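Trying the structure run again after the queue cleared.
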Amino acid sequence: MNRRNAFILVGLLLMGGTTTFLLSGGRMAAKKPAPGGVALETSKVIAAPGRVEPLSEDIKLGAELNGKLREVLVEEGDRVRRGQTLAILENNDYRAQVTSAEAQLAVKEADLRRVQNGARREERREAFAAVRSAEASLENARAEMERRQELFKQGVAAREEAERYERQYKVAKAQYDAAAEHHRFIDEEAREEDRAHAEADVRFARAQLDEARARYAKTFLLSPIDGVVLRRHHRRGEIVTNSATAPDPVFTLGDSSVLRVRADVDETDVSKIKLGDRSYVTADAFGGRKFWGRVVRIGQELGKKNVRTDEPTERVDTKILETLIELDDARELPLGLRVDTFIVVN
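Done. Tokens:
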């Protein structure tokens, strides 16, 4: 072997060793401990691609009803509070349903009060006066009947006359009984079944009002979190739909107070990582800066890759385990940025 070939062979051996070192995760020696007290000289670093996401992950906020957007109140990048109104659908018809239900409830409640309170005092007095009048007519008819019967016994009055006054007395007696019964009806408390029927009508009207108010409330899109508007997918005047098979979000929200990285750890390295492992991420846009954090969640099921590195030699047939890394201070990193993740394991 000549001298030139010998140099080429040594170079190839060195390159092969370096490649083996990188593909195996490598053992990094360092004179100084890493932030958080991790000594890299006795640790192994597992590399994985990752993507930056908010603490809450991405929240797709859509409308529960189909309709047209009447107002869109926030823009991308705006900070929002939990419960804040972000958009409003056209809702005049839903508001009218609420007004109608409120009026119907008021009618049913008035009916219930009438049943519970019974007749008014004026109606009670009127019924009592009718009883007194019928009683007076009855006494007058009785006196006339008795007088005519006595005259008939004495032979002074004819039988027909005595019988006519007897019939008049019976009519007066029936009128008195009817007036007395009407007075008792007016003066009595409501029957239990009448009260129960009126109360049921009130409960039904109240339920209809609650339903109308719930539909009306769904025309307001409220923020479920304190966070930031990451994307606005619709503008004022556009139609939005509520479909389980074809989601149509109006906004994408996220809590960016703390950033996380969702990393794709190769299946060959899943046994080496554990909760609490110190980690750092780098990105081409930030040069050699390292953003440190720790592993806060490790997936329970292997799956397909979520992040592609665009490297020609990247294998796409391997399984990965999603691992979540919470960053200590990385507010400069934009959401969705692809990063290189390095997990330091002992």
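The longest strand covers residues 44-54. Worth checking whether this holds up in the mutant runs.
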